[in-house]
Amino acid sequence: MIKAIPMMVLATSNFGKARELAHFLESVPVKVTMLCDAKAKLDGVEGKSDYEQNAIAKARRAAEVEGKTALGEDSGLEVEWLGGKPGPMSARYVSPDATATQKNEALLGELEKTPDEERAAKFVSLVAIAEPSGAVRTFRGECSGRIAVEERGNRGFGYDPVFIPDGYEKTLGELGVEVKNKLSHRAMAMAKAREYLEANC
Ligand code: ITT
Predict the structure, then answer these.
(1) Does the pLDDT value for residue 201 go beyond 80?
(2) CA of residue 17 to ligand 1 center, whole Å
(3) What is the pTM (predicted TM-score) of this model?
(4) Secondary structure of the chain as H, E, C letters
């Protein structure tokens, strides 16, 4: 008997994120595709302040338009000194069109006078898997660390060049995906999602 391979669409317009999500799904018997024209299709689904609601909204929108299981993710960087900001607004910090370098420079500027021991931060990832029926499961992951005093390294994406994970002296921008994929917020959330998918595919 031939068993059909289930399909799953990644509900994201962020290629750095998509590459990492696809990596974590390599061992799962699903055929992973990108949501075409994702920026337009996901436009307006995100609210302001809730990772879980945002992740669910992205996954549900993609599942609905594609008629397939969809995986959406909402993530952000929470800086203790800034009371947890930018948090769920991380992609829109400074302005929606700001480049990663502009966001990193703005963040470093806000922390200019902040001593080393007060620069604690964490990345948060909320992954949602939705069915076209609307049924949904969510999985959360976190990665603790601190904000560097300058941008270092050009690997990864977003805030990677200013984030030093606990136990390291280098930024994720210097450490690269080999290290990042072992300890990141996305790795933690996707380990739980993978366990669920492997039991249910
Ligand atoms: P989609 O909504 O289309 O998935 P997005 O980039 O807008 O793409 P989010 O709303 O989840 O995604 O925004 C998360 C932002 O947080 C992202 O744009 C980065 O700036 C930052 N971020 C999240 N995870 C990160 C990571 O692993 N490394 C560096 N920055 C990260």
Answers:
(1) no
(2) 7
(3) 0.96
(4) CCCCCCEEEEECCCHHHHHHHHHHCCCCCCEEEECCCHHHHHCCCCCCCCHHHHHHHHHHHHHHHHCCEEEEEEEEEEEHHHCCEEECCHHHCCCCCCCHHHHHHHHHHHCCCCCHHHCEEEEEEEEEEECCCCCEEEEEEEEEEEECCCCCCCCCCCCHHHEEECCCCCCHHHHHHHHHHHHCHHHHHHHHHHHHHHHHC
